[in-house]
Amino acid sequence: MTKALSGRQAQAARNDEVILAAARAVFIADPGAPIAAVAEQAGVGISALYRRYASKEELLRKLCTDGLARYIAESEKALADDRDPWTAFEAFLHALVDADTNSLTQRLAGTFTPTPELFEAAVRAGELNQAVYERTKEHLRPGIVVEDFAMILEQITSIKLGDEARTNQLRHRYLTLVLEAMRRSGEQPGGGPELPGPPPSSGELTDRWRV
């Protein structure tokens, strides 16, 4: 049974959620923004923010740690999904679009020094990604590899138009179109035209996180 938080602890937890939500909004819009912009967005004093996060770098690491944890959770959920592999794969990508973890990947890569724990989480996420791919690959058009997933999600989550609800609606619209393009078709010889250029290598993806 989960122990209930005291009034002070509950308030601290709520404040932390507000700070992290503000940090996501500020740093996705401008990774170079000062930490004072996060305090202003969150409606807290800069001293209160520094009591929770000693530096901008620490705050950036927290955002990415949480993002990776969400990605890992969604990956594990997809692998436990007992529906047919394609249905589970579609649900997995739509859940990742809702989680919006790839917006962090796009904007924060290379802006801070990752910790060994973050690298370990990234390795775990990569292992789960590979497992999802292995489960789904017979339904994917030829030429698609696991490294393509990150690039596809980054393209989808780069869409921003109107308010948050409209942005989310458009992201799911275009993800649906992309999923149709990714799916193997028995009506096209070889599964469709050859894809131009090689996919990104794991090294190319990892190098973006080096400061």
Question: What does the secondary structure layout of this molecule look like, with pairings?
Answer:
Elements: H1 7-29, H2 35-42, H3 46-52, H4 56-80, H5 85-99, H6 101-108, H7 116-136, H8 148-157, H9 164-182, H10 202-207
Helix pairs in contact: 1-2, 1-4, 1-6, 4-5, 4-6, 4-7, 5-9, 6-8, 8-9
Could you characterize what this model shows?
Helices cover 67% and strands 0% of the residues. With 211 residues, the chain is mainly α. The chain folds into two domains: 1-54; 57-207, Tetracycline Repressor, domain 2, CATH 1.10.357. The longest helix is centred in the N-terminal third of the chain and has 25 residues, at 56-80.
Short description:
Residues 13-71 form the HTH tetR-type domain. This is TetR/AcrR family transcriptional regulator. It contains ten helices and no strands.
The third-level CATH topology of the largest domain is Tetracycline Repressor, domain 2
> In the residues, how many domains can be counted?
2
Backbone shape: elongated
Into which percent range does the helicity of residues fall?
55-70%
DNA-binding region: 34-53
InterPro entries: Homeodomain-like_sf, HTH-type_TetR-like_transc_reg, HTH_TetR, Tet_transcr_reg_TetR-rel_C_sf
GO molecular function: DNA-binding transcription factor activity; transcription cis-regulatory region binding
Keywords: DNA-binding, Transcription, Transcription regulation
